[in-house]
Design a protein that fits this description.
This protein is α+β, with helices and mostly antiparallel strands.
């Protein structure tokens, strides 16, 4: 998870409609899910760290400090779970870059370089948004494997980056077809 900077609110006071924060969030954070880091060209949501659906957090519904960006997968997995801020890592607050390791297969693991308490926080964050789930093997009607879940999509992105590195490294490596998921 890349650390992000939301910085101070672009408005004085709360947003009357939290969706109005989307352009400012995208400008500062990019079109990426704050949790799984996938590029999301459409349907990127203003995510409420403390869920807007729970009565206790209604006062935070328009509060800039309660916003991140999330994809449909992370946002719907997190849903209305209350978040104990002391029990998770957040990319706008913590050094989440040091907390996780990404494998070529698309899995995210908690770094063993963290102390035991930080490992618990990192694991709780993965569980909160479902990034601790295994990838699924899904084929279309022709038997071709497709990447529908976040793990397989991260694997495809990794392979694309490896391919681009070889293509553009000047070593004469030709463009190659990526292996199936």
């Amino acid at each position: 998870m890349r650390p992000i900077r939301r910085d101070a609110s672009p408005r004085q006071g709360d947003f009357s409609n939290y969706r109005d924060a989307l352009p400012d969030l995208v400008s500062r954070l990019g079109m990426y899910c704050s949790y799984c880091e996938r590029y999301i060209a459409t349907q990127l949501a203003v995510e409420h760290i403390q869920p807007k659906g729970l009565p206790a957090y209604q006062p935070l519904q328009g509060r800039w400090e309660n916003f991140l960006l999330a994809c449909v997968n992370c946002n719907s997995t997190k849903k209305d779970k209350p978040v104990s801020l002391s029990d998770v890592l957040l990319p706008d607050r913590d050094n989440t870059l040091a907390a996780y390791l990404y494998s070529a297969g698309g899995e995210i693991q908690v770094s063993s370089q963290l102390n035991a308490h930080a490992q618990q926080l990192a694991q709780a964050t993965l569980a909160l948004v479902g990034l601790d789930q295994q990838g699924q093997t899904i084929a279309d009607a022709n038997g071709r494997l497709i990447a529908l879940d976040r793990v397989k999509q991260r694997r495809e992105a990794w392979l694309t980056a490896v391919d681009a590195r070889g293509t553009h490294s000047g070593d004469g490596t030709a463009h190659r077809e990526l292996p199936p998921c």
